[in-house]
Amino acid sequence: MSENAPNLQTIEQQAADWLVKLDQTEQLSDSDKQAFSVWYQANQQHQQTLLQMSEIWAALAPVQTKINTR
Questions:
Q1: DSSP string covering 11-42, please?
Q2: Higher per-residue pLDDT: 4 or 49
Q3: Residues 11 and 46: beta-carbon distance below 8 Å
Q4: N-term to C-term CA, the chain
Q5: Which of 7, 40, 4 is nearest to 21 (CA)?
Q6: CA distance 51 to 3
Q7: Under 8 Å between Cβ of 14 and 46
Q8: Which of 1, 53, 56, 61 is most exposed by smallest CB count within 10 Å?
Q9: Organism's domain of life (predicted)?
Q10: What's the whole-model pTM score?
Q11: What distance in Å separates the CA atoms of residue 47 and residue 49, rounded to the nearest whole number?
Q12: Contact 40, 50 (CB under 8 A)
């Protein structure tokens, strides 16, 4: 692994940030779309981590619905 390669914790934080932004933003700006594309394509670990987190995010959706209805 290169010294400049981000560690897994950094990738997880970046993936979480993107997941929240993608979920909570109705329309991404062109610059955000470009930044996401660059980040996503830059490293296979980015793709795997984002997909894993999105599965967890989807699984937690019913919990969020229950919280919001209380």
A1: HHHHHHHHHHHHHH-SS--HHHHHHHHHHHHH
A2: 49
A3: yes
A4: 47
A5: 40
A6: 25
A7: yes
A8: 1
A9: Bacteria
A10: 0.77
A11: 6
A12: yes
Contacts 24+ apart (CB under 8 A), 17-26: 18/50, 19/50, 19/53, 19/54, 19/57, 23/57
- Tell me the per-residue pLDDT of 10-63, one tens digit each, with 9 for 90 and over: 999 999 999 999 988 889 999 999 999 999 999 999 999 999 999 998 888 777
Token pair 């400049």 is at which residue? 4
* 5: confidence class by pLDDT, cuts 50, 70, 90: low
User: For the chain, what is the total number of helices (H) and then of strands (E)?
Assistant: 3, 0
